[in-house]
Amino acid sequence: MNASYLELQGIRKLFGDQPVLNDVDLTIREGELVTLLGPSGCGKSTLLRCIAGLTELDGGRIRLGQQDLSNLPPRNREVGMVFQSYALFPNLTVADNIEYGLKMRGVAKKERMLRCEELLALVDLEDKRGAYPQHLSGGQQQRVALARSLAVQPKLLLLDEPLSALDAKIRKNLRTEIRQIQKRLKMTTIFVTHDQEEALTLSDRICIMNHGRIVQDGSPESIYSAPRTEFVARFIGSYNVLSRAEASRLFGEGIGQADSFALRPESVKLLMDRSDAEELAAAPANASKRTIEGTIDSIHILGNVIRYFVDAAGIRLTIDRLNDGRSLRANDQSGVRLVLDPSQLLQLEKEGA
Amino acid sequence: MTTQRKARWPHRALMLLLMIYLLLPLLGTFLYGFAKEWQTTILPQGWTLEWVAGMFQDVRFLEALWTSLYLCLISVGLSLAVMLPAVFVITVYLPKWESFMKGLVVLPYAVPGVVAAVGLIRTYSSGPIDLAGTAYLLIGAYFVVILPYMYQGIRNSLLTVSAVELLHAAELLGAKRMRAFLTVILPNIWPGIMISTLLSFSVLFGEFVLTNMLVGGHILTIQVYLYQRVAESGHLASAIAITYFIFILAISTVWMKLGKKFNGEVRG
């Protein structure tokens, strides 16, 4: 297979004289699910609309397969899109919505119906074929929208925050479902979201965007474990971002040349009771670690994880610890000892570098 | 349950008052149209069909009704044919023009009817386009009068159904713009358009000042006819007003039924 299936080259877009997309380059392999992740206003949706042809480019080229899309109208791009607001046609039934694209392509009625049944089965809505969109729940509507865009077998599927209008539980189920369908059909997909958890669970690859640029691009693991800049570190997780002075107060000298540092919240150990301390002393690998005193400021229970906010050496740190049942001893404002591992301190590059 | 009932009582009383306020004049007119003698008593002293019969015997009445009907239909139809595509294009493709359009459509209200009429007569009574006193001039003026209703109605319908998104979705599924408009936009904004056209039609049917000044001596609309005969007899005028009211009511009912039927077919 061709290594790059979709290729974006130097995509530029201005709204007025305000640049929204700044020379974006991106290549995607066939069958890959790539997430564009970023805060609102970072240009991720605009990039998607440029690929779909709903927004005109001010510069750059888009190639899909062997075809240059840059000057094609949306209807000839063979790109499917699912909108945040579903955009189902309210005057058509579920089945007619799904068949719409096939009808526009002049597919015979019998074939349309067969294809429609296939897709209804795929999104598990066989009993809703005659219903109108306004009689379906949000999750069902979005599944219809997905089926509708898949019906015409697009070369590329674009999902523009498809889950953000749904409530948490449906969102989680539907995102698993979307991923399964995408894998089964080997559908090359671009997924836009501002939710980093969604991005981490769904993607083969994540592109983090900020101010109209892709600032970091990589697998979910590498993005999470090695954020390149302060922006990524803050956006992707609850990283502790430390200035050089703060980092040296915690870790002493010899921390490297960077101006700012990131520390994963689960890399700091809290010593709660004696068994914790004994465990620490027993392991020889802990020789390089540093122990400092701190005060617990507040505790948030996130479910399987307990998040502690601790003041140590005048710095407020976020520390995550697995909720193993015995951890919840500490009261607010009680003293605690922290074990810091210098090998977990990440050096961050300057913004925009 | 009790709280609900308590809360509903004042509401009902208020509605009743409003209904009385709105319907009492209509009822009075209705009774007057059939009254023989109604001077010093609360209710008329006798009934007669004299006025109604007299009205229908007058050929001019039916002619005026017919004239009003077709002039209004042509004006509303013309407005629909021009405004529907225009508002669609502005809302979907040229949203920057919206503020300009908003200003434009309220102009008919900014200019008093009399001023507008005099201006139109002066402009079109001589020179290259001589339209004074013709139906063309009247239809042109009617077009301007209903501009705000048509513009707002169509625009609101388009915004309510998120026409831009629907259009994008249809285009990405392979529909050409015209086809997309006909298959997914028009059926969804149709109920709103029905209301706008009905409102425009009623407004035009009741229009008097502009009509009388522009074409009063040449074309007899129902309002001009009514005005001419008011002086003759109040009873007769009442009968005309009531007949005209029932006529409009009938047209509205049929139109709404049509809209509902269409909508019903669409939504199942």
Task: Write up this protein.
The complex is a heterodimer of chains A (353) and B (268). Chain A contains 10 helices and 18 strands. The longest helix of chain A is centred in the middle third of the chain and has 18 residues, at 168-185. Chain A has 2 domains: 6-234, Rossmann fold (3-Layer(aba) Sandwich); 264-343, OB fold (Dihydrolipoamide Acetyltransferase, E2P) (Beta Barrel), CATH 2.40.50.140. With 353 residues, chain A is an alpha+beta fold. In chain A, the strands form 4 sheets. Chain A has a 6-stranded mixed sheet with strand order 6-7-8-3-9-10, sandwiched between helices. Chain A has a 5-stranded antiparallel sheet with strand order 13-17-14-15-16. Chain A has helices spanning 44-52, 94-104, 109-122, 138-151, 168-185, 196-202, 220-225, 230-236, 244-251, 274-282; strands at residues 6-15, 18-28, 33-37, 59-64, 67-68, 79-82, 156-160, 189-193, 205-210, 213-218, 240-243, 260-263, 269-271, 290-301, 305-312, 315-322, 335-340, 345-348. In chain A, α2 (94-104) packs parallel to α4 (138-151) and α3 (109-122) packs across α4. Chain B is mostly helical and 268 residues long. Chain B folds into 2 domains: 1-48, no CATH class; 59-267, MetI-like fold. Chain B is 80% helix and 0% strand. Chain B contains 12 helices and no strands. Chain A: Residues 6-236 form the ABC transporter domain. Chain A: One of its GO terms (cellular component) is ATP-binding cassette (ABC) transporter complex. Chain A: Its EC number is 7.6.2.9. Chain A: It catalyses: a quaternary ammonium(out) + ATP + H2O = a quaternary ammonium(in) + ADP + phosphate + H(+). Chain A: InterPro entries: AAA+_ATPase, ABC_SmlMolc_Importer, ABC_transporter-like_ATP-bd, ABC_transporter-like_CS, P-loop_NTPase, Transp-assoc_OB_typ2. Chain B: It comes from Cohnella endophytica.
CATH class of the largest domain in chain B: Mainly Alpha
What's the alpha carbon Rg of chain A, rounded to whole Å? 25 Å
Judging from the principal axes of the Cα atoms, what is the shape of chain B? globular
**Roughly how many Å apart are the termini of chain A?**
33 Å
Keywords (chain B): Cell inner membrane, Cell membrane, Membrane, Transmembrane, Transmembrane helix, Transport
Protein name (chain B): ABC transporter permease subunit
Family (chain B): Belongs to the binding-protein-dependent transport system permease family.
Domain ABC transmembrane type-1 (chain B): 65-255
